[in-house]
Amino acid sequence: MKILVTGAAGFIGYYVSKALINNGHEVVGIDNINDYYDINLKFDRLKELGIAKEDASIYNRKAINCTDDKLFSFVKLNLEDRENLPSLFQLEKFDVVCNLAAQAGVRYSLENPEAYVDSNLVGFLNLLECCRNFSIKHLVYASSSSVYGLNKKVPFSISDNVDQPISLYAATKKGNELMAHTYSHLFKIPTTGLRFFTVYGPWGRPDMAMFLFTDAIINDKAIKVFNHGKMERDFTYVEDIAEGVVRVLEKSTTERVQNNALYKLYNIGNNNSVKLIDFIQEIESNLNIKASKEMLPIQPGDVERTWANVDDLIRDYDYQPNTSIKEGVKSFIDWYKTYYNK
Prior knowledge:
This is NAD-dependent epimerase. By secondary structure, the protein is of the alpha/beta class. It has one domain (2-200, 237-271, 307-321): NAD(P)-binding Rossmann-like Domain (Rossmann fold). It has 13 helices and 13 strands. The chain has helices at residues 11-22, 39-48, 53-56, 84-92, 108-111, 113-133, 168-187, 209-218, 238-250, 254-258, 276-287, 311-317, 325-339; strands at residues 2-6, 26-31, 72-76, 96-99, 138-144, 191-196, 199-200, 223-226, 232-233, 236-237, 263-268, 274-275, 293-296. Helix 6 runs parallel beside helix 7, helix 8 (209-218) crosses helix 11 and helix 11 crosses helix 13 (325-339).
């Protein structure tokens, strides 16, 4: 298939693009390369996919046209761009779309709410309009475990109420689900939302726990442990996540259209909850360094525990996350030491 992957220079977008290419699909990636975190990490991910920094730095429609044997091409583009995004759809004639572009981060949404409205709501609407107007067969998009908000029941299930988000980031992701439902209902577009649970691994985001802890410990700085360490997360290795996303993208939606089951939501996680303290100990063990810990109260917007019930994804897509915390943490530490020459 010919697949558009938005957020292709991002953490999950990079892995999904790589997996799709390895399966023989033609992938066009877009990303705005914003400076929410180090843009060099984003350019280096694209370099791994065969895109030079100079080619990824400007909008160039000609550069994205996959007319040769190259299975991945890239264009720098905002989802909010109401002129060039439809032009891209018209030019490339995608079969399916995988939307992984978003302004990420729970805590940053307290400081810069406008960025979340622009990218996660306005940009998502623009993408839905393109899917509607250019006969896209399937839209798969990233939601988040953060939509569960104040939910106390674990493991989190798709059937749980998600009307109590506690961050604007979570509210925009719940908004995406509602918008997708509307377009599935009105315009018969098959849409699948995937609620991601704490993704970690090589090439990860510098603002996430795995990266922050490792960087601080190696550089002899105290790590900030919120809620005095009484946190649990469904840590999910990034390649397991990418495998699940690809399975959803590759499966035909014909049966869903026939059964009028156009709108779907799934949790995608490791199906297990790990104590934050145990996660930190695994990092310490791999680095052979004892961390200095600054115990702090819980941050606004944070939840104490996440745990994904992924039974539906296992049933419908044979999704089987199989990377242990021990394996995953070691893989990240090895990458970090190599990438930063530590």
